[in-house]
Amino acid sequence: MARVIVVTSGKGGVGKTTVTANLGCTLAKMGEKVALIDADIGLKNLDVVLGLENRIVYTLLDVVQGRAKPQEALVRHKVLRNMYLLAASQIATKEMVSPEDMKNLVKELERDFDYIIIDSPAGIERGFRNAVSPAHMALVVTTPELPAISDADRVIGLLENFGFDDESIKLIINRVKPKMIKSGDMLTKDDIKNALALDVIGIIPDSEDVIIATNKGVPVVLDGVPLASTFENIARRLQGEMIPVEEDLKISESRGFLDFLRRLFGRRGDKR
Ligand SMILES: Nc1ncnc2c1ncn2[C@@H]1O[C@H](COP(=O)(O)OP(=O)(O)OP(=O)(O)O)[C@@H](O)[C@H]1O
Ligand SMILES: [Mg+2]
């Protein structure tokens, strides 16, 4: 039976789709069979991030309205052959799908997969309820800024109303700039953990590699960049391994050090 995980947030644009795509790819690289569901109905995004937009024949709406079976609507990833996507429909509205539809859909897929990861839309209306209702676990993504944290707090309250307990809600802090934490200009992991009273399962550095990868339609973890190990840490924590979250930032610190060396040698080169 699959573990069903929803990736959600209070504030929009904090990195849900990025986390869904890259966590899915990482788990698939580790040998797990993964289905990603884009529940951001009305917009399409996850297919583009995964580079699969041209392969979509059926969408979530086709499944819900009985034109396709869930298995038929899944698109297989080009490189990671044990990862599949169920794409969102652009022509549908969120009201055309109900939480009950989503539960039925997941019920049909859960026997065939190790992980089902649902990418939730921004906001806390119907789309949020659709995405959350079939899940056993929620990853709440926030950036280290007060408005995002305050919205995350609101979503955590809603998740608790849905029956999620503290153990089944984990935080992911995205777009962290380690230099700013060091200089005291950014909220730290502990600040955020204390504010939201939940465990942090991953800290993802802010990295232009994410944007470069997105523009190529290749999830960043498949692009051979240091950030891949951050997502490996998150995947291994999901599988129960105890890896301190501070490990996640070491990657970007060492990257910063490499950049520093490059600049140093670059400057020397200029003098010659
Ligand atoms: N760690 C990161 N470093 C740099 N850029 C990032 C990072 N994470 C996400 N981004 C960028 O931020 C933007 C928003 O990310 P994404 O689409 O994943 O957010 P979202 O929460 O799914 O948004 P929405 O609420 O609209 O669905 C994208 O352009 C993405 O490339
Ligand atoms: Mg998104």
Tell me the layout of helices and strands.
Elements: E1 3-8, H1 16-29, E2 34-38, H2 46-49, H3 60-64, H4 70-73, E3 75-76, E4 83-86, H5 99-109, E5 115-119, H6 126-132, E6 137-142, H7 146-161, E7 169-176, H8 178-182, H9 189-196, E8 200-205, H10 208-216, H11 227-238, H12 246-271
Parallel strand pairs: 1-5, 1-6, 2-4, 2-5, 6-7, 7-8
Antiparallel strand pairs: 3-4
Helix pairs in contact: 1-11, 5-6, 11-12
This protein binds adenosine-5'-triphosphate and magnesium ion (MG).
Which terms would index this structure?
12 helices; single chain; 272 residues; binds magnesium ion; disordered C terminus; Rossmann fold; 8 strands; globular; eight-stranded mixed beta sheet; binds adenosine-5'-triphosphate; 15% strand; alpha/beta
Structure description:
46% of the residues are buried. The chain is 44% helix and 15% strand. It has helices at residues 16-29, 46-49, 60-64, 70-73, 99-109, 126-132, 146-161, 178-182, 189-196, 208-216, 227-238, 246-271; strands spanning 3-8, 34-38, 75-76, 83-86, 115-119, 137-142, 169-176, 200-205. It is globular, with a radius of gyration of 19 Å. By secondary structure, it is an alpha/beta fold. It contains 12 helices and 8 strands. The chain has a single domain, classed as Rossmann fold (3-Layer(aba) Sandwich), CATH 3.40.50. The chain has an 8-stranded mixed beta sheet with strand order 3-4-2-5-1-6-7-8, sandwiched between helices. It binds adenosine-5'-triphosphate and magnesium ion.
Q: What is the typical, i.e. mean, pLDDT? A: 89
Parts with pLDDT < 50 across at least 5 consecutive residues: 267-272
Query: What is the CATH top level name?
Result: Alpha Beta
Instruction: Describe the global form.
Output: globular
CATH H level, superfamily name: P-loop containing nucleotide triphosphate hydrolases
Query: Going across the major beta sheet, what is the strand order?
Result: 3-4-2-5-1-6-7-8
Q: The biggest beta sheet, please?
A: 8 strands, mixed
The percent range for strand residues is 15-25%
Q: How many discrete structural domains? A: 1
In this entry the ligands are: adenosine-5'-triphosphate, magnesium ion
Helicity level: 40-55%
Q: Please report the number of helical segments.
A: 12
CATH architecture: 3-Layer(aba) Sandwich
Compressed to H and E, one letter per element, the order equals EHEHHHEEHEHEHEHHEHHH
For this structure, the CATH topology is Rossmann fold
The total of beta strands comes to: 8
